[in-house]
Design a protein that fits this description.
The complex is a heterodimer of chains A (206) and B (617). Chain A is of the alpha+beta class. In chain A, 26% of the residues lie in helices and 26% in strands. The N terminus of chain A is likely disordered. In chain A, strand 6 and strand 7 form a beta hairpin. Chain B contains 23 helices and 20 strands. The N and C termini of chain B lie far apart (76 Å). The model of chain B has no long low-confidence stretch (mean pLDDT 92). The interface between A and B is medium-sized, with 25 and 31 residues.
């Protein structure tokens, strides 16, 4: 097998040759169940909550030319922390998307003020503890407010029981990683993003 | 000294040991542990101010920060802090405009200030001022702050400009900034801002006029006008979702706009450049376009990435909510929130009924002052000093009634003083200061032996509601009520939320009630240091007080009288008369003569004699 040297291709200054398996191993969740984030916007999402189990996660919101959205915080020595990107804490709740017919992850911010998601979902989760499974309709009309409505699960609809059962089996066996709904980048990869590189240089030379 | 279960500090020795640990280096260790967000809650009299002083000195002298900013509630407290700092510690004071020195120009100044046209005021009025050469105020920012290591100012600056600390950091060219806040009510100060549609229209029109005249308009000028027009037409959704970023308020541009605005609209014009910048950094959920087209938003105070709040009582969740309502930042660390301080010799009584409430006080004032007059008279006889507390509007009534009663009790001359503390001999027990609720940080009464609240201090639900709701948009505001229940009575704030929402609002409402009502009582009587020295305190409150364990609560005035062995005034008068009847009887007077001498009926004389055990016939 031939190893390429990075300086052989001067055009791709930022390209870095890496081992595919090592790299993909860090980016791909090692679970058979692929989860995606349920993104809330002004359009209704029709969801069926089925568990009160959540996973806490620290994320960073980035808005760079190359990438925009939430990334995992890399913990101690996280490059995004070092360049002063705020940590956003989220509680990840698996829910069944009744339209897409699959389990997804709802990222719930810690805010408990009126109009936030968490205080409106808490009573719904309490209903779950009481063995009632409501249908939850959520939208986010603007950046400052969520609207959560509930209604009884209509009779005869596909409530995703089979899918949920499969998920819960995997989840209880530890085969599901809810945090995998968000991308993770190693510090070395983050350093390749020009905005981060500049911020680092400025901070280190200040 | 880590947070944990309730920790009691009772008496002089444990207190001295505790105070010894409150050093500057310890404050910085706590700040590190708190990741820069530290709340120091220390009961009144425990050593909050000294801890603030030590923290300031250490933060500056140990070169831990480029700039330390100290913010205190009032000028007298700032002067006290300044006196406690070493003379060789270089500091810069940020002063308010010296309105008295401005003399005749002050009225014009106020007009400019009220309309956001301070820069125009400086140009027009300071230019005319005969004292301008000797006035340091106009040039106190800019070069004067360059390289400053310690800046002291009152909190009013942060109320007017929520990004005042950031501004100071920039002016001082400082990267590592520490804010030290001596909290009184800063965190409960109103954050609600309003930009009226009319002001916005005039602001845009003035900019357009200037731009039309400009031969080579600057990019910033064009950008300001575009954004001003854009926000004028933005809906609530746009106000929340858009990334609003206004250019820097360039002083030359601002003066031109203010000059033009004043010329076009006079006092109707308002310069809103700074307001729009505050809007851009405001809490997103609070932003809304009101029906009339006005824009409302909440502008939260920014204390920087490292700060210590020194507070007597503010609850941690409330402080956090007021600084970071979305809980986006790490929580505040409060290492002393579980500490409880008391002095074993202090006796704290509470009169728990509504007779002292503003609505009922006038009709009960005579009975109540009879009781307190006897307590004051006894203290005077024992050589003890007494501090009195009243609602401001009842101060004259209380003073007059007490003077009259004390005269009847024969303890003249007693001076009940309400102000001008330095003019009176406060070490004389016959000088009885009467302060009003709301006073904090006044340290002239530390040596007093007793503090009595002559009436109660309650706030209406609207006052709680305003503080609780002002961070929320109209659609998310819910009514707050205050309920008084139980026996002994306890006041509590309640919020009705839809669909069983589990928000922080009920918790915040309760804590606002405590902070704005019960804590005001504690701060007032706290002037005599009841938590750290042996004192007698009588409060008049339908509820618990933060950090206080009552020695005894009285549900009625009669219970209090009975406890202290004080007769009601009617019985006292009867007793005096009966004694006189006996005395005259002993002088050989007949009952008829006695009745005539005392101006009462014969049957009254007979009854008095029966009561005294004498023969009525």
């Amino acid at each position: 097998m031939t190893e390429l040297k990075t300086d052989m291709n001067p055009a791709s200054k930022h390209a870095k040759i890496a081992d595919a398996l090592a790299k993909w191993g860090t980016e791909t969740p090692c679970t058979p169940t692929k989860l995606t984030e349920i993104r809330l916007d002004a359009n209704d999402k029709i969801l069926i909550p089925f568990t009160t189990s959540i996973v806490e996660i620290d994320l960073h919101y980035v808005d760079f030319e190359a990438i925009r959205g939430f990334l995992h915080c890399n913990g101690v020595d996280c490059l995004l922390c070092r360049v002063g990107r705020r940590i956003d804490k989220r509680d990840l709740l698996p829910v069944y998307d009744a339209v897409d017919k699959r389990v997804g992850v709802l990222a719930i911010p810690p805010s408990v003020r009126p109009g936030a998601l968490r205080p409106q979902l808490s009573p719904v989760l309490r209903q779950l503890k009481g063995e009632t499974r409501p249908l939850v309709i959520i939208n986010r009309p603007d950046r400052g407010r969520f609207v959560v409505r509930t209604q009884p699960l209509p009779a005869g609809i596909d409530d995703g029981a089979a899918e949920i059962a499969r998920f819960l089996e995997d989840f209880t066996q530890g085969n599901v990683d809810l945090t995998a709904a968000f991308p993770q980048m190693l510090n070395e990869e983050l350093r390749e993003i020009p905005e981060i590189d500049i911020a680092l240089q400025l901070r280190e030379n200040a | 000294m880590n947070a944990g279960p309730q920790q009691m500090i009772i008496g002089d020795e444990p207190l001295a040991a505790f105070r010894q640990g409150l050093t500057g280096p310890y404050a910085m260790t706590l700040l590190d542990e708190a990741k820069g967000r530290l709340l120091i809650q220390l009961t009144v009299g425990v050593g909050k101010t000294q801890f603030l002083v030590d923290s300031t000195i250490h933060a500056v002298t140990a070169d831990l920060f480029d700039l330390v900013v100290g913010l205190v509630p009032r000028w007298d407290i700032l002067n006290e802090l300044r006196e406690r700092l070493p003379a060789d510690l270089r500091l810069v004071l940020v002063k308010p405009r010296p309105s008295r020195r401005c003399g005749e120009l002050d009225e014009c100044w106020k007009q400019y200030e009220q309309r956001g046209c301070g820069l125009l005021g400086r140009k027009k009025l300071c230019g005319l001022c005969p004292r301008a050469n000797n006035c340091s105020w106009p040039a106190q920012y800019g070069a004067r702050l360059r390289g400053a290591r310690l800046i002291l100012a009152t909190q009013q600056h942060l109320v007017l400009n929520p990004h005042f600390i950031h501004h100071l950091g920039q002016q001082a060219n400082a990267r590592r900034v520490l804010s030290l806040v001596d909290e009184s009510n800063l965190l409960l100060s109103s954050t609600e801002r309003m930009i009226s549609a009319a002001d916005l229209a005039r602001f845009s029109q003035v900019q357009k006029t200037l731009l039309d005249r400009a031969e080579q308009p600057r990019k910033q000028q064009v950008e300001w006008l575009e954004l001003s027009r854009m926000i004028a037409g933005a809906s609530t959704i746009d106000l929340r979702d858009g990334t609003w970023k206004f250019p820097w308020v360039d002083a030359t541009w601002a003066v031109h706009v203010q000059e033009q605005g004043w010329a076009l609209y006079g006092q109707q014009f308002r310069f809103i450049g700074h307001d729009l910048q505050h809007f851009a950094q405001s809490d997103v959920s609070s932003r809304e376009r009101l029906t009339g087209g006005d824009i409302r938003f909440a502008s939260l105070p920014y204390l920087g990435s490292k700060f210590i709040i020194f507070s007597g009582s503010i609850a941690r969740p409330l402080a956090r909510y007021r600084l970071d309502p979305n809980h986006e930042r790490p929580t505040l660390m409060s290492p002393f929130e579980h500490y409880c301080f008391s002095h074993p010799g202090t006796k704290w009584f509470n009169l728990n009924n509504m007779e002292g409430a503003a609505r009922y006080f006038r009709r009960n004032a005579t009975r109540l002052m009879d009781f307190f007059a006897v307590k004051i008279a006894r203290n005077i006889t024992e050589g003890k000093r007494t501090l009195l507390v009243s609602r401001k509007k009842f101060v004259p009534l209380c003073r007059n009634l007490l003077r009259e009663r004390l005269r009847k009790l024969g303890v003249e001359p007693v001076r009940i003083v309400c102000r001008g503390w330095t003019k009176h001999n406060l070490s004389d027990p016959r000088t009885v200061p009467l302060i009003s609720y709301g006073i904090a940080g006044l340290n002239r009464f530390e040596g007093f032996h007793a503090a009595y609240c002559l009436n109660s201090f309650y706030i209406p639900p609207a006052a709680v509601s305003q503080t609780v709701q002002e961070l929320e948009a109209s659609t998310e505001r819910y009514a707050v009520t205050i309920a008084t229940t139980g026996r002994p009575a306890r006041r509590s704030a309640r919020v009705e939320l839809p669909d069983a929402w589990e928000t922080i609002i009920p918790v915040v409402a309760e804590q606002v009630l405590v902070q704005k009502e019960a804590d005001v009582v504690v701060q007032a009587v706290g002037r005599v240091r009841p938590f750290t020295r042996e004192r007698e305190v009588i409060t008049f409150h339908a509820g618990e007080l933060p950090g206080v364990h009552y020695t005894r609560e009285f549900l009625t005035l009669a219970q209090a009288r009975s406890h202290f062995g004080i007769l009601p005034s009617s019985q006292v008068a009867m007793q005096v008369r009966a004694d006189e009847v006996l005395r005259l009887m002993a002088l050989g007077k007949t009952k008829k003569q006695i009745a005539e001498a005392l101006g009462v009926s014969l049957s009254t004389v007979k009854r008095d004699l029966r009561r005294q055990g004498g023969h009525p016939t």
